Amino acid sequence: MARLLLVEDDDAIAKPLARALAREDFEVTRVSNGTDAVATFRGGNVDLVLLDLTLPDIDGLDVCRRLREIDNTTPIVMLTARSDELDIIVGFDAGADDYLGKPFSMAELTARLRARLRLNQHDDSILVADGLSIDTRARRSTLDGDELHLTPKEYEILVMLMTSRDQVVSRQRILLDLWTGDLEAANRSLDVHMSSLRKKLGEATDTPRFIHTVRGVGFRFEATGA
Question: Which of 20, 25, 59, 151 has the fewest other C-beta atoms within 10 Å?
């Protein structure tokens, strides 16, 4: 059972949300302010954080930054009523892994949380393949000894593909696990991120080094080296 830290000050939201998450097999610890969130997180025993950005004592973005100073690997999903794209970008820069806008459905929320856990729970903290290396604990990637400067989405796509090495990963799975909102827009965004990722990996379209397109299905990560 995944241990979830819920940081939400509004009882009208937090109490039914905690009950619903418990029914979905999450072990929920709820706190209502940023100070308690940091203290609870520092105590350990947290697999996932669901963080509201509007808190009474510390802004949720600052809470996120403080959590990242303690641990850089535990997934953090933001809850926000802020729809401005800049706020979302700042949230990712603060260390969040995903966000969900209010109002939201429980089905979408639980799907997003489980997707974060799947991405975070694999056996190897170091992924290596033919000169490409990813330290998932430090979220650091290198290619032939040079650091890769990946966006959060590029990093997540690459980790998903590498952890499913030699297997086809469907576009649908990538979209459902890594994006929220309009799937049509997400589909276009995936193409943009994939193109950028391939360029950073030094891949030519006709001679992929790592990421192979399986037409009509998705992508497969292959590498000739270890």
Answer: 25
Residues of the chain short of pLDDT 70, as ranges, are 82-87, 120-124, 181, 204-205, 224-226
Q: How far is CA 6 from CA 15, 16, 90, in A?
A: 10, 12, 21
Tallying the residues shown for the chain, one arrives at 226
**Burial (0-12, 13-18, 19+ Cβ within 10 Å), 216:** exposed
Q: Which amino acid is at 193?
A: H
Residue 219 CA to residue 117 CA, distance in Å, equals: 21
Cβ atoms within 10 Å, residue 174: 22
Taking the C-alpha atoms of residue 76 and residue 84, their distance in angstroms, rounded to an integer, is: 19
Q: What is the rounded CA–CA span in Å between residue 171 and residue 190?
A: 8
- pLDDT number for residue 124: 54
3-class state of residue 168 by DSSP: strand
With contact defined as beta carbons under 8 Å apart, do 50 and 79 qualify?
Answer: yes
Domains and their CATH numbers in the chain: 2-120 (3.40.50.2300), 126-221 (1.10.10.10)
Q: CA-to-CA distance for 95 and 152, rounded, in angstroms?
A: 9
Query: Any idea which residue has 């943009």 for tokens?
Result: 192
Report the pLDDT value the prediction gives residue 83, as an integer from 0 to 100.
Answer: 57
Query: How far is residue 53's CA from residue 86's CA, in Å, rounded to a whole number?
Result: 14
The radius of gyration of the chain's CA atoms, rounded to the nearest angstrom, is 18
What is the pLDDT at residue 86? 64
8 A C-beta contact, residue 176 and residue 182: no
